[in-house]
Amino acid sequence: MTLSTSAAASSTSSTSPLPAATAEPPAPVDILLKHRFPKRYRHPTLDAQLTRQRLTSEARALVRCAKAGVRVPGLRLVDVKQGCLGMEWIEGWSVREILGGGQEDDLTSDDDEDERVEDVGNDLGKMHTADIIHGDLTTSNMMVRLRTGDSAGANAPPFEVVLIDFGLSSASPMHEDRAVDLYVLERAFSSTHPVAPGGRAHFDLVLEGYREALERAPKKGEWDRVWKRLEEVRMRGRKRSMVG
Ligand SMILES: Nc1ncnc2c1ncn2[C@@H]1O[C@H](COP(=O)(O)OP(=O)(O)O)[C@@H](O)[C@H]1O
Ligand SMILES: [Mg+2]
Q1: Burial class of residue 214 in the structure, from the number of CB atoms within 10 Å of its CB (0-12 exposed, 13-18 middle, 19+ buried)
Q2: Under a CB-based contact definition with an 8 Å cutoff, are residues 127 and 136 in contact?
Q3: Same-domain check for residues 99 and 117
Q4: How does pLDDT run along the chain (244 residues), one tens digit per residue?
Q5: Considering only CA atoms, which residue is closest to atom 18 of ligand 1?
Q6: Domain limits at 41?
Q7: CA of 15 to the centre of ligand 2 (A)
Q8: Are 70 and 123 in contact, with CB atoms under 8 Å apart?
Q9: Residue at which a domain ends, from 88, 115, 138
Q10: Region (Disordered) spans which residues (predicted)?
């Protein structure tokens, strides 16, 4: 996959009249173009099918997440034929970069960081409530950016986390799928981001935010069901790692 940015004029509705010649042109906005190159090692028909599938899954999930109030890049362009997706450019860093790769001097923790990690859990809860499974929840697939003007309330924290990379996403209301999604993230946190002494485990914070989101959802008892499943998935994971 290749990523590139390009400055594109911000879109105006096709039904709106053309701006007067004297009006200021719309400010350019950066978009990210995600292009999946054909893989030579795959059969061309299968490759084309997979590319199309991932692209449409990603586009669909971005739209559904945005509707559910999950922070994701805005979708700007879909070209299935070229295997190309255009989305809002997120100016920032991945959570992986922010949390560090587990070096000694990365072991810092502060309340603000804890709150952002909890926000991630909240967004994941909203995402799952909208029946979207991410499919690849790692800290590289979460970006942190500075909040901009209108998204920042008076007391809003300066940073926010945006979920990206929905190419492996799917639509499912199953508790099992939700639990596996969470388990993948738990593994990602524990393998690359050890906790600062006295700090709280990142995944515990995620679960706190997640639980809140599920308890706010109209359907009751969802948190208990997902939690129970997560325990089962963890058990299976432990058994598998013991067998090798
Ligand atoms: N909307 C975006 N804005 C800015 N950077 C992005 C955006 N989407 C992806 N990236 C960057 O590109 C990297 C790879 O993109 P991603 O969608 O995760 O594809 P891949 O399937 O290769 O992991 C990300 O880890 C991130 O650093
Ligand atoms: Mg990725």
Answers
A1: buried
A2: no
A3: yes
A4: 656 555 544 443 445 555 566 678 888 889 999 998 888 999 999 999 999 999 999 999 999 999 999 999 999 999 998 899 999 999 999 998 888 754 444 434 567 788 889 999 999 999 999 999 999 999 999 999 988 765 556 677 788 999 999 999 999 999 999 999 999 999 999 887 777 667 788 999 999 999 999 999 999 999 999 999 999 999 999 888 777 6
A5: 165
A6: 2-7+27-88
A7: 36
A8: yes
A9: 88
A10: 1-26
Residue 44: inside a domain, yes or no?
yes
Beta carbons within 8 Å of 12's beta carbon, 6+ residues apart: 19, 26
Distance 182 CA to ligand 1 centre (A): 20
Would you call 136 a catalytic residue per the annotation?
yes
Place of tokens 């810092």: 108
Any atom of ligand 1 within 6 Å of the Cβ of 51: no
| Distance from residue 3's CA to the centre of ligand 1 (Å) | 7
Question: How far is Cα 40 from Cα 56, in angstroms, rounded to an integer?
Answer: 21
Residue 152 Cβ contacting ligand 1 at under 6 Å: no
The closest ligand to the CA of 164 turns out to be 1
Q: What confidence score (pLDDT) does residue 223 get?
A: 97
Instruction: Report the nearest atom of ligand 1 relative to the CA of 94.
Output: 27
Q: Which of 42, 68, 88 is the last residue of a domain?
A: 88
User: CATH number for the domain including 74?
Assistant: 3.30.200.20
